[in-house]
Amino acid sequence: MNESDLLALKIAFSYMPQAIEVNEFDFAGRVESTLEHINTVREALLAHGVDPDEVGGDIFPDQTPNSSY
User: Fold this and answer.
1) Domain extents in the chain
2) What is the largest CA-CA distance in the chain?
Protein backbone atom coordinates (compact mmCIF):
# COMPACT_ATOMS: atom_id res chain seq x y z
CA MET A 1 0.00 0.00 0.00
CA ASN A 2 1.45 3.36 -0.93
CA GLU A 3 1.55 6.32 1.46
CA SER A 4 -1.42 8.17 -0.08
CA ASP A 5 -3.60 5.05 0.17
CA LEU A 6 -2.53 4.53 3.77
CA LEU A 7 -3.32 8.17 4.56
CA ALA A 8 -6.77 7.76 2.98
CA LEU A 9 -7.37 4.66 5.13
CA LYS A 10 -6.30 6.56 8.26
CA ILE A 11 -8.62 9.46 7.43
CA ALA A 12 -11.56 7.13 6.81
CA PHE A 13 -10.85 5.26 10.04
CA SER A 14 -10.74 8.49 12.03
CA TYR A 15 -14.37 9.15 11.03
CA MET A 16 -15.59 5.62 11.82
CA PRO A 17 -17.36 5.02 15.11
CA GLN A 18 -15.44 3.32 17.88
CA ALA A 19 -16.60 -0.25 18.51
CA ILE A 20 -17.92 0.74 21.94
CA GLU A 21 -20.19 3.31 20.27
CA VAL A 22 -21.91 0.74 18.05
CA ASN A 23 -25.33 -0.17 19.42
CA GLU A 24 -28.68 -1.38 18.16
CA PHE A 25 -30.29 2.04 18.60
CA ASP A 26 -27.87 3.88 16.30
CA PHE A 27 -27.06 0.96 13.97
CA ALA A 28 -30.36 -0.91 13.88
CA GLY A 29 -29.89 -4.28 12.23
CA ARG A 30 -26.28 -3.46 11.34
CA VAL A 31 -24.40 -3.93 14.62
CA GLU A 32 -22.53 -7.10 13.62
CA SER A 33 -21.64 -5.90 10.12
CA THR A 34 -20.51 -2.51 11.44
CA LEU A 35 -18.28 -4.16 14.03
CA GLU A 36 -16.86 -6.42 11.32
CA HIS A 37 -16.09 -3.40 9.13
CA ILE A 38 -14.36 -1.61 11.99
CA ASN A 39 -12.32 -4.71 12.73
CA THR A 40 -11.37 -5.15 9.06
CA VAL A 41 -10.02 -1.61 8.87
CA ARG A 42 -8.20 -1.98 12.21
CA GLU A 43 -6.54 -5.16 10.93
CA ALA A 44 -5.49 -3.44 7.68
CA LEU A 45 -3.90 -0.61 9.64
CA LEU A 46 -2.10 -3.04 11.93
CA ALA A 47 -0.85 -5.02 8.91
CA HIS A 48 0.81 -1.83 7.69
CA GLY A 49 2.44 -0.98 11.00
CA VAL A 50 -0.13 1.61 12.10
CA ASP A 51 -1.59 1.56 15.60
CA PRO A 52 -5.33 2.18 15.09
CA ASP A 53 -5.58 3.77 18.53
CA GLU A 54 -3.08 6.43 17.48
CA VAL A 55 -4.66 7.31 14.12
CA GLY A 56 -6.74 10.15 15.57
CA GLY A 57 -3.57 11.84 16.77
CA ASP A 58 -2.00 11.52 13.33
CA ILE A 59 -5.02 12.97 11.52
CA PHE A 60 -6.12 15.56 14.10
CA PRO A 61 -2.98 16.45 16.10
CA ASP A 62 -4.45 19.71 17.39
CA GLN A 63 -7.48 17.89 18.86
CA THR A 64 -5.53 15.13 20.60
CA PRO A 65 -4.51 15.46 24.25
CA ASN A 66 -0.84 15.18 25.09
CA SER A 67 0.29 11.78 26.27
CA SER A 68 1.35 11.40 29.88
CA TYR A 69 3.88 8.66 29.23
Assistant:
1) 3-61
2) 40
